Amino acid sequence: MVANSNNLIPSFLKGLIVSCQAPIDSPLHDPLVIAAMAQASVNQGAVAVRIDTPAHVQAVRRQCPKTPIIGLWKQQLPGFDVYITPQFHHAEAIASAGADIIAIDATLRQRPGGETIETIIERIHDELGKLVMADVDTIESAIASQKAGADIVGTTLYGYTAQTQHLSPPGFDLLSQIVEQLDVPVICEGGIASPQMAQEALKRGAYAVVVGTAITGIDLQVKAYQKAIIDVSPAP
């Protein structure tokens, strides 16, 4: 663990982390809007925010200078399925923008450039002085992440990989397995759609809970409501 981070992770305990993101084609995908989402979340008690792209991290850091930021950079690279901060240079950009913790895809899938979970975590620790949140999909990837030195493990990718695509988040079963078998703090992320679900995650041993779409996902929420309304509307 990074030496100067001793008080950061404990501040997350039993807390809400809000993922402030928006689709790239949405008017909400603007650094100032994302920063406003983050500030609104912090004003109401969020212990940290999770932010995608260097530009958005930088905007949030300016708006919320003392707020812990879990930063990531989603990248679709030809020939590879990993997309959450897939390479070290993506992590470096996120760190430079002001993130305190770097979230990375920590599944067992192949990474570009010959990098491995072990090498990228080691470099983030040693060269950037940042903590690492390992986004995993299975208990195997969670165990491998802890072994590689991850500071936090999240259930983020449960249901979003070929191995787990038949499963639907939230990954409460995976959460329980990780809590039982690992020593690092476990964050429940993905599919938390109500305060009651967040409570359930904490009851199952989650150190903290990340909520995104249910709070900040205006585009997806409106789309879901609109579809439901159309589905029950009588035919003309």
* CATH fold naming: TIM Barrel
How many domains is the backbone divided into? 1
CATH superfamily: Aldolase class I
Going by helix content, strand content and strand pairing, the class is alpha/beta
- Estimate the mean pLDDT confidence: 95
Q: Would you report the number of β strands?
A: 8
Low-confidence stretches: none
Counted by DSSP, the helix tally is 9
Helix content: 25-40%
How far the N terminus sits from the C terminus, by CA atoms, comes to: 62 Å
Largest sheet: 8 strands, parallel, barrel
CATH class: Alpha Beta
- Taken in chain order, the helices and strands follow as EHEHEHEHEHEHEHEHH
* Estimated share of beta-strand residues: 5-15%
Shape: globular
Family: Belongs to the NanE family.
Enzyme class: isomerase
EC number: 5.1.3.9
Pfam families: NanE
Descriptive notes:
The protein has helices at 31-43, 54-63, 88-97, 117-128, 139-148, 172-181, 195-203, 213-216, 218-232, and strands at residues 15-19, 48-52, 69-72, 101-105, 131-135, 152-154, 186-189, 208-211. With 236 residues, the chain is of the alpha/beta class. The protein has one domain: Aldolase class I (TIM Barrel), CATH 3.20.20.70. It has an eight-stranded parallel barrel with strand order 1-2-3-4-5-6-7-8, surrounded by seven helices.
Brief summary of the model shown:
By secondary structure, the chain is of the alpha/beta class.
